[in-house]
Design brief:
Number of helices: 3
Shape: flat
């Protein structure tokens, strides 16, 4: 449970930094994503998911 709470907190920190420091960049990124076909967005999401799982696994292996 502690790991889940830590992970959610870190996600909120990163999300908050993006909104606070570069809101116009975020709008540009979202507009660019909207131009991608749905299959490419899905593939990008799956790739992000895979990278996230590997990062969590690596952190757990390192003792987090």
């Amino acid at each position: 449970m502690e790991t889940l709470l830590l992970a959610l907190g870190l996600v909120l920190i990163v999300e908050g930094l993006v909104y606070a420091l570069a809101p116009s960049l975020l709008e540009q990124i979202l507009a660019a994503l909207a131009q991608l076909p749905i299959d490419q967005r899905r593939l990008l999401g799956l790739a992000s998911l895979a990278v996230g799982v590997v990062m969590v696994w690596a952190a757990k292996q390192l003792g987090a």
